[in-house]
What does this fold into?
Amino acid sequence: MKLLILGSGGREHALAWKTAQSRLVQKLYCAPGSDAITALAECIPLDCCDGTEVAGFCAEKGVDLVIIGPETPLASGVSDVLRRSGVRVFGPGQAAARLESSKAFAKKFLARHRIPTARGRTCATLEEAAAALEAMKPPLVIKADGLAAGKGVRICADREEAEDTVEDFMRLKTLQAAGETVVIEECLSGPELSALALTDGKTCRLLPHSRDHKRLLDGDKGPNTGGMGAFAPVETGPDLESAIRGIFESVLAGLREDGLDYRGLLYAGLMLTAQGPKVLEFNCRFGDPETQALLPLLDCDLAALCLACAEGRLGTAELKFRPGACVCVTLASENYPRAPMTGRPILGLEEFPAGACGLGLCPRGSPAGAGRTDFPTAGADLMLFHAGTARPGGKWTTAGGRVLGVTAWGPDAAAARRRAYEGVSRISFDGMHYRRDIAGELLAIR
Ligand code: AMP
Ligand code: GLY
It folds into this structure.
């Protein structure tokens, strides 16, 4: 099979790393990819959001399957164009992807299908927003309707902050069109969980639950970021598990009822409240950095799974996980998430086995670790996923806010965590910072 992955970040590096091990994959392309991904795939400078351009490339090269990494191509309808041209796609079409690209749409969907979520109102005008603020008691959560690269949600402790946010999003249009409509919600509390499932629209199969660490600083302080680290699995008890399964079944039934075709990854961001799990948001793609902590746990062929989703036969596909746990620590640039400094040399990458990418840990054609809990070489349970790096003139430098995801597997979470931070200690660049408390808590929720 010829496989094309769209995207260029840590998630896509992890997707490329995992699918490169597939026995089915004879040729791997990534667009646009990155200097790190070139070690695994032929990188092609395509505009990922231009369906016609991507479809043209697929026709020219005979690509059999496209896996869409980020949300923007999904929101632009790239899946639809590709499917119309006969290419199999892992990723929902534009209409279903509105679950992520429009918070107002998601809110309506949740209400229509009676899926637990925070109470909220959608406001399309300043007058509606003013009336909602009048009627609802702070703290409140204000969400820009459209995609805002992690900047569209503000937790407002009091009325003044809520009014300022409405002013920013709706009158000043600081997020352009994304903030013209807002959703104003009650503020829920409880631990958060990322629940990811593969689906072909008929069946959905959950991956191990994971946890992202969105805030910049230890102890969940500081501003929200794209994600400062993740771990998996988060163990749950039977009641919680059945509530989460119930949510996914309802979403799937709702999609069918609404005539929405969904083949890809469905991610529910959940808050585990005293009244049970409630949906905070949907993503229509693999989470980042969650995917970096999840894929090393997958003990089967990811390309085969994605193909099964695209072809509507997920029910019979093999899905297996390794025992143990995985921890991913994000190394970020100075000034991330505001205005990250880039172009700084990265030291220590040569210490990683098989070069910078953690490649060669699992020989091509063999599943990651193949169920082993011991590894033949030191460092084989340590992977380095590149999120924002470049290699001009052969030297690795920082090229984004989130630079690297140092990811370790261990027989248990404590071992994985120790190993990941050991990996972190070998890498340095000017201004590098990271959280020291990834996987420090919440390993099990019952
Ligand atoms: P979202 O993009 O909707 O997941 O929001 C980003 C983050 O905002 C979530 O991970 C939560 O930490 C927080 N959040 C979103 N909605 C709520 C809510 N209704 N109550 C409390 N926190 C929320
Ligand atoms: N880690 C959250 C996301 O991928 O949106």
Remarks:
- Residues 354-379 have pLDDT under 50 and may be disordered.
